Amino acid sequence: MNATDQTRPHPAVTKAVVPAAGLGTRFLPATKATPKEMLPIVDKPAIQYVVEEAVAADLRDVLLITGRNKRSIEDHFDRAYELEEALEAKGDDDRLRAVLEPSDLAQVHYVRQGEPRGLGHAVLCAEAHVGDNPFAVMLGDDLIESADLLCRMIEVRERHGGSVVALMEVEPEQVSLYGCAAIEPTDEEDVVTVTDLVEKPSPEQAPSRWAVIGRYVCDPAIFPVLHETPPGRGGEIQLTDALLELARKGPEEGGTVHGVLFRGNRYDTGNKADYIRTVVDFACRRQDLAEELLPWLKDFVARYEPL
C-alpha cells in the first residue's frame, strides 16, 4: 500500500444492488410463477438472506432489480396487515416476528429490468439510484455464511478506491462456470490486484483457479464503461468485461480492481443439487429441526443404494 492509498479519502459504501430479474429456467416448472429468489431455504426465501447480509454490513439502502412476474419479491418486503392481525389475534408472537422481519430489515427500493440482458445491464439499471456513489452488487444465487466477506470488501474499497471483487478458488473442471481472474499479490495476504478477467474460460485458457463469485463493490466509474461495453457471450452485457476495462485504466479514472480471497462457506443455490444441499445444511443447523432431521438423514444414507 502506498501513501496515496492511506491518505486519499474514498466515499463510504452505503448502498447495495441485488439483481433479481433472471428467469430461473434451471428450476422450471417451479419458477414458472414463483421467482427463483423466493424459493425457500427451509422457511425463508433465498433473497432475504442476501438482504440480511447487506444489512449486517451496514448497507441499509437496498435496490432490487426485478422484472415481470417478480411482484411476490416486493410483497415479501412489504407489510402484510391482514396476516399480521390474524397472527396477533392468535397470540402467535414467533410467527408474527418472522412476518414483520422482512419489512423492517432495510430501506428497499425497486427498479425493473425490461429484459434480462446480463449482469452488466442489470447493474446499469441501478445508475439513477446509485448516482456518483460506490455500491455493492450482491447476487441472490450466492449465499455467503456471514457478512465478513462483504465488510472486508468494503474496507478494501474505502482504503484503495476502485472496485473490488470476491474471489474463491475452484477446481480446474469448474473454471468454465465462472469469470476467472489473473491476480498479483499485495502486502495483504487476502487482497490481490486483478490484472485480467476471463468470462467462463476453458480450463486451458483460465488465467487462474480464482473465480469471481457473486459479491462486488463497484466504483461509479463502472457506469460509463458499461454504457460502452458491447454484448458478449449469449448477447449479454458482462460486468466482468467492464471491470476488466476499469482495471486497465489508472486510479484517476476510477480504475484499479482488487480482489478479496474468500475461503469461507459459500452456497450456490443456482443449480438444483447445490440448492438441495443448501436446504439440508441450513436445516441441520436449526435447533428446532436438527434433533429430528439428523437421525433420519443418517438412517437414510445408511440404507440408500445409489442408482
UniProtKB/TrEMBL annotation:
A matching Pfam family: NTP_transferase
UniProt keyword terms in alphabetical order: Nucleotidyltransferase, Transferase
Nucleotidyl transferase domain location: 15-278
GO molecular function: UTP:glucose-1-phosphate uridylyltransferase activity
Catalyzed reaction equations: alpha-D-glucose 1-phosphate + UTP + H(+) = UDP-alpha-D-glucose + diphosphate
Domain of life from the UniProt record: Bacteria
Cross-referenced SUPFAM superfamilies: Nucleotide-diphospho-sugar transferases
CDD domains: UGPase_prokaryotic
InterPro entries referenced in this protein's UniProt entry, alphabetically: GalU_uridylyltTrfase_bac/arc (IPR005771), NTP_transferase_dom (IPR005835), Nucleotide-diphossugar_trans (IPR029044)
Gene Ontology annotations of biological process type: UDP-alpha-D-glucose metabolic process
EC code(s) of this entry: 2.7.7.9
Family label: Belongs to the UDPGP type 2 family.
PANTHER family noted in UniProt: UTP--GLUCOSE-1-PHOSPHATE URIDYLYLTRANSFERASE
Name this polypeptide is given: UTP--glucose-1-phosphate uridylyltransferase
Organism of derivation: Nocardiopsis algeriensis
Upper lineage: Bacteria, Bacillati, Actinomycetota, Actinomycetes, Streptosporangiales
